[in-house]
Design goal:
By secondary structure, this protein is an alpha/beta fold. The chain has helices at 3-12, 22-33, 50-58, 68-74, 84-91, 113-119, 154-161, 174-203, 208-228, 234-240, 247-257, 260-280, and strands spanning 15-18, 42-45, 63-64, 77-80, 103-106, 126-131, 140-146, 165-169.
Length: 281
Amino acid sequence: MSDLFAKTMLKRKKLGFIGTGNLAQAIITALVEENSIARENIYITNRTPGKPTKLKKKFPEINYLSNNEELVETCDIVVFAMKPQDLQNAVEPISYVFDKSKLVISLAAGVTIQNLKRLVPEAGDIFRVMANTPARVKRGVFGYCSTNNNSANESYILELFSPLGLVVAAEEGEEFDALTVACSSGTGFVLELLHYWQDWLQDRGYEEEIAKKMAIETFIGAAELAKQAEHLSVEELRDQVTSKKGVTIAGLEKMREFEVEGNLAMSFEKAIQRNRQLAID
């Protein structure tokens, strides 16, 4: 299915969100701004009225329904956008409404494809999608897997989430766990490092506000250099900005002496263990 055909097809679909938290709102806003789908073809429900009312005020044409059953009956694509702990209670009572014509997309962290199939066994394709927080500023990373590895519906996934960032297919299991930790938990890890940068600058006399800006721009600048230097590996780029016997190499050698890479790897592995435990629970 070509991208152009997928866009045309998506415009004809009715898209429903069960849950209207921050991520759902970011997706809906991006779809409307990109004109990817007609506003009147977007349907929402939520356990409490606050967020839907706010969203409806922003986009009056979207449809705020009073119950989940009506949403599933109405929509071609149903997005589970509630918190993972609320998923079963929200979906189980209406599981009979799903049939093979329904494309299901779950944003519920830690809920496996197997558990989703058990919850809505009669649904058509089911996609599990992992999103990270920078999706709110259209710099996210989305990982996805499905019940059908060769599904033609993958084009819809790309069309729905590409306006918010990078979309990556991943096999459920080790690949999906690695993507979750590196990109979702990884956002927190990067912010922790950013905090260290800011603290170090403040300890040396800079005011909090300027220290924060300096740290942020350093991280953004380094990331943008890496992004634009597509022909270079990150290692090669690092070597380009590091002179022998200079200031930078002195600091890098100390980082290596403290085995920063190994300690970060252990942090990643600890996060993966916790992610797998939550999936079992």
